[in-house]
Specification:
There is one protein chain. With about 400 residues, the protein is of the alpha+beta class. The protein has helices at about 5-15, 95-110, 130-150, 155-170, 175-185, 225-240, 250-260, 265-290, 295-310, 315-325, 355-370; strands spanning about 20-30, 40-55, 60-70, 80-85, 115-120, 190-195, 200-205, 210-215, 330-335, 345-350, 375-380, 385-389. The chain is built from 11 helices and 12 strands. A hairpin with a 5-residue loop joins strand 6 and strand 7 (about 200-205). It is globular and about 65 Å long.
């Protein structure tokens, strides 16, 4: 990100100098898919793609935003200019709901906010399963905290951001995306217990590249099968008599399934994925700590197969790109990442092979799907940060 250009954009639009710059990253989940809203375990990392805000405080309760990325509905040749009042927030639609939702939940939590002028930009691909929404939420939370003189409590702000997405935007996501964007550490993965919110920063191995494979297929979450899967998991947990599927071990699951009384076929598959995926996350952390990249790759592969066969949230494009990745030299493993139904996969690749890997996967995917893949070799970055001010 060119900070000078961002500051110049602010000066051009608002005719004043910026005082504060904040950033919040997107994330890629290495393993632990759909386990977060089941009180389970996840292993994401923040990526070196983010949302940036250049801002300056106002003397009133107005928030005025100028987006370098979102064209207005009436004139696509212009950037979006939007404003709202902190003391009269109302729901609407579009990207402005993210800052409004954050403002509403911060005020509901007892924080006193003041307004600001800001320019916003970002390079987290939207709808790709890389949590562009959480990056925006945490960037605005960091901005409100900096402008209003609030102490920055990253886990607390992550929970407020999740509540904004759940209750204001209407997506019933778990806590993983917001926690990853808030608390991740450079060069580390984040091992997160989504029930207690206890976390560890686990060093990533040297000589290994994390490669994101964007299928160029998209599906929105708000009215999708995402919410359906969540309900199915809750029904399965009720059948087991537990608060969440995190409370069922693999051994208990297998023993119960051997008995005559079984879960409904669909619920059985959903439960199998969540229960075995939680176990895979724990094994993945062990593999990382031991430097066993080969084992980590095997867990990637098993995770994707379960997401495809048991949780049924892949699509043809995701399955094709994962197959293309697994065939390449230097690839330890690959899996879909994010909510699914399109978006991205993630591959674990020998660093020395990363460039050749990207070119080979791109060509193979184009041939098999007639689609163009966007491929990013990523570094693990810091969580939501105050860059200047």
């Amino acid at each position: 990100m060119n900070i000078r250009n961002l500051k110049q954009s602010f000066a051009t639009y608002f005719n004043s100098e910026t005082e504060i710059i904040v950033r919040a990253p997107g994330r890629v989940n290495l393993i632990g898919e759909h386990t977060d809203y089941n009180d389970g375990f996840v292993l994401p990392m923040a990526i070196d793609r983010a949302v940036w805000l250049a801002l300056r405080p106002r003397a009133d309760k107005t928030v005025r935003l100028y987006s370098l990325d979102n064209p207005t509905p009436t004139n696509a040749s212009k950037q979006a200019d939007s404003a709202f009042e902190l003391n009269s927030l109302t729901k609407g639609c579009g990207w402005l709901e993210y800052p409004k939702g954050i403002a509403y939940q911060l005020q509901e939590a007892g924080y006193e906010l003041i307004g600001f002028d800001a320019v916003i930009t970002g390079n987290v691909p939207r709808g790709a399963g890389l949590s562009s929404s959480a990056a925006a939420e945490l960037a605005f939370a960091r901005a409100f905290a900096a402008i209003s003189g609030l102490a920055w409590d990253a886990p607390r702000m992550a929970k407020i951001a999740q509540k904004a997405e759940n209750d204001w935007v209407g997506v019933h996501c778990g806590i993983m995306d917001q926690m990853a964007s808030a608390v991740c550490k450079e060069d580390h993965a984040l091992f997160l217990d989504c029930r207690s919110l206890e976390f560890q920063h686990v060093p990533l191995p040297k000589g290994v590249a994390i490669v994101i494979l964007d299928t160029s297929t998209r599906r929105g979450l708000v009215n999708s099968a995402y919410n359906e899967r969540r309900i199915q998991c809750e029904e399965a947990a009720h059948w087991f008599g537990v608060k969440a599927l995190r409370d069922v071990s693999v051994d208990e699951f297998e023993n119960r399934m051997r008995k005559e009384e079984k879960l409904d076929g669909v619920l059985l598959k959903r439960a199998r994925h969540i229960i075995t995926e939680n176990a895979r996350v724990l094994k993945a952390v062990e593999a990382l700590k031991a430097g066993n990249v080969k084992r980590l790759g095997e867990l990637f592969n098993a995770s994707h197969d379960s997401l495809r066969d048991n949780f049924e949230v892949t699509n043809d494009a995701l399955n094709i790109i994962v197959d293309c990745a697994r065939e390449q030299e230097g690839c330890y493993g690959a899996r879909m990442t994010g909510a699914g139904f399109g978006g991205c996969a993630v591959a674990l690749v020998k660093e020395q092979n990363a460039k050749e890997f990207a070119n080979a996967v791109s060509a193979a995917y184009r041939q098999r799907s007639n689609l163009e893949a966007n491929i990013y070799v990523c570094k693990a970055s810091e969580g939501a940060s105050l860059i200047q001010g």
